[in-house]
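W.,

You were right to be curious about this one. When I first looked at the sequence I had no strong expectations either way, so I just let the prediction run and decided to look at it fresh. Below is the sequence, 131 residues in total, followed by the output.
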Amino acid sequence: MPFTLSWYDQGQGILQIQMDDVVTWDEYHNVISQVVEQAASVSYRVDVIFAGTQDMPQGNPLVHFRSAMQKIQKQRNIGMMVIYTNIQRSGFMQVMGELAARAASFDLKQKTTFNEAVQVIATERQKALRV
């Protein structure tokens, strides 16, 4: 299995997707479905960190990213997704992810370290508490 999906924290508020192998788009869509199922199993906000050492599959990612963002957006308790990868992502892939998130009105952030990913989630949660 090229993806590992697990709860990052004991309170089960952050789902972590770890991608360390070459993946197919079908496997990508499968793990997104698993994220939605896990989030549906709880009644509170869930945020997602997508971390990996591999780039996404070949081909136009926009249709895949848009589909994933729309699926995630339908699960109302998913707050945001933060992408962290230690590989140099192509500018094209970054832009495609951002476009798909904007088209689905979904909060997507991209960070360069895992700690930054966790920190941006903590910051966004604090902002939500003040509203």
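Here's what jumped out at me. The first strand starts at residue 3 and ends at 7. And, maybe more interesting for your project: The radius of gyration is 14 Å.

Coffee later to discuss?

I.
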